[in-house]
Automatic annotation (TrEMBL):
GO terms for molecular function: serine-type carboxypeptidase activity. GO terms for biological process: proteolysis. Belongs to the peptidase S10 family. This is Alpha/Beta hydrolase protein. It holds the Pfam family Peptidase_S10. The keyword Protease applies. InterPro entries: AB_hydrolase_fold, Peptidase_S10. It comes from Suillus subaureus. The keyword Glycoprotein applies. Keywords: Carboxypeptidase, Glycoprotein, Hydrolase, Protease.
Length: 281
C-alpha cells in the first residue's frame, strides 16, 4: 500500500475502504489495526468469505450439514453418507450450530477432507469455491489494464496463484480472536459477507466465529438471523442479513467464494452500504 501511494500520490489523504477475501481478510484486518502507517483516512472494511477463525470452526464442524444440504450435488452413496454422519456424531459436530460451545478438535475428525476427496472421485472438476461449477474459469490478461495500474506486462498473470503463499505456515492467531473486535469498534461500518455455496470456507462456520467474538461489551449477535432478510433492490430476497453494534453480516444465495464474481448485483448493493451510499443494508 505504501508503494501504491508512492505511484499514485494524488490519492494521499483520501478516504479508504478496505476489502479482503478468504485469507486476505486476515491482512485487511491487520492493515486496519495500523492506520498511522498509511496516509489515508480509513472508513470501513468488507471481508468476504473470510478466514477469521480456526479450520475446525469454518470447515470441519459445518461440513456434514453442508453436504446434507447439497446432497444431490455431491452424489455420494448412502454408505459413505452414513459413515460421515457417524463421524460427525462421534466428533460432537452434530447439532453444534445450536450450541456455540467451546471448540474442541479431536483426532480423526477431519470430515471436510473426507468429503472433498470423495467428491473429486465422483466429479474430478468439483470446485470447493462454488460446488456446482464443473470447469475452471479462465483468466484473460489485459495489457491495457496492466499498463494502467503499472503492473509488469511481461508477467503471466492468473486469478489465483498455485504457489503456496505461506511456505512455512502461518502461526498468527485468527483475527476473530485478536484484531477483529477492535476493528469493528473503531469502524464506521464493518461488513462480513459469505456465499452460501462456498465449501472451502462454510457460512455456518463464519456464524460460529461471529458468535464467539466480543465487541462493544457483548458476545456475538444478540438476536437471531432471520431467513430471507437480505433484500436486493429490484430482485427480492437474496439470502440473509443481520446488523448489530456496527457489524453487518450477509449470506448471499447462489454465490460461491468470490461474491463480486458470482453475485455482482448483491455485491454492488453491499458495497453501496459499506461506503455510505445507502442508509440500510
Amino acid at each position: 500500500m505504501q508503494q501504491f501511494l508512492e505511484v499514485f500520490s494524488e490519492l494521499k489523504g483520501k478516504k479508504l475502504y478496505l476489502t479482503g477475501e478468504s485469507t486476505n481478510a486476515d491482512i485487511a484486518n491487520y492493515i486496519y489495526e495500523n492506520p498511522t502507517l498509511l496516509d489515508l483516512s480509513l472508513q470501513g472494511i468488507w471481508i468476504s468469505d473470510p478466514s477469521i477463525s480456526w479450520d475446525v470452526v469454518q470447515e470441519e464442524i459445518p461440513a456434514v450439514d453442508f453436504m446434507n444440504k447439497y446432497a444431490g450435488l455431491f452424489s455420494f452413496n448412502q454408505t459413505f453418507m452414513s459413515h460421515l454422519e457417524e463421524k460427525a456424531v462421534t466428533c460432537n459436530y452434530t447439532g453444534y450450530m445450536d450450541k456455540y460451545e467451546t471448540i474442541e478438535f479431536a483426532q480423526g475428525c477431519d470430515v471436510w477432507d473426507d468429503i472433498f476427496n470423495n467428491a473429486l472421485i465422483i466429479n474430478p472438476a468439483f470446485d470447493i469455491y462454488r460446488i456446482w461449477d464443473t470447469y475452471p474459469i479462465l483468466w484473460d490478461a489485459d495489457e491495457n489494464l496492466e499498463e494502467a495500474i503499472h503492473a509488469p506486462v511481461d508477467t503471466e498473470w492468473s486469478e489465483c496463484s498455485n504457489i503456496n503463499v505461506f511456505p512455512n505456515g502461518d502461526n498468527s492467531l485468527p483475527p476473530a480472536l485478536t484484531v477483529l473486535p477492535s476493528v469493528i469498534e473503531k469502524n464506521q461500518r464493518t461488513v462480513i459477507v459469505h456465499g452460501l455455496a462456498d465449501f472451502i470456507l462454510i457460512a455456518n462456520g463464519t456464524r460460529i466465529a461471529i458468535q464467539n467474538v466480543w465487541w462493544d461489551g457483548l458476545q456475538g449477535f444478540q438476536t437471531p438471523i432471520a431467513d430471507d432478510s437480505f433484500i436486493v433492490d429490484g430482485v427480492g430476497a437474496y439470502g440473509t442479513m443481520h446488523s448489530e453494534r456496527g457489524l453487518t453480516y450477509y449470506e448471499v444465495a447462489l454465490s460461491g467464494h468470490m461474491i463480486p464474481q458470482f453475485a455482482p448485483v448483491a455485491a454492488f448493493q453491499i458495497m453501496q452500504y459499506l461506503m455510505g451510499f445507502r442508509d440500510t443494508p
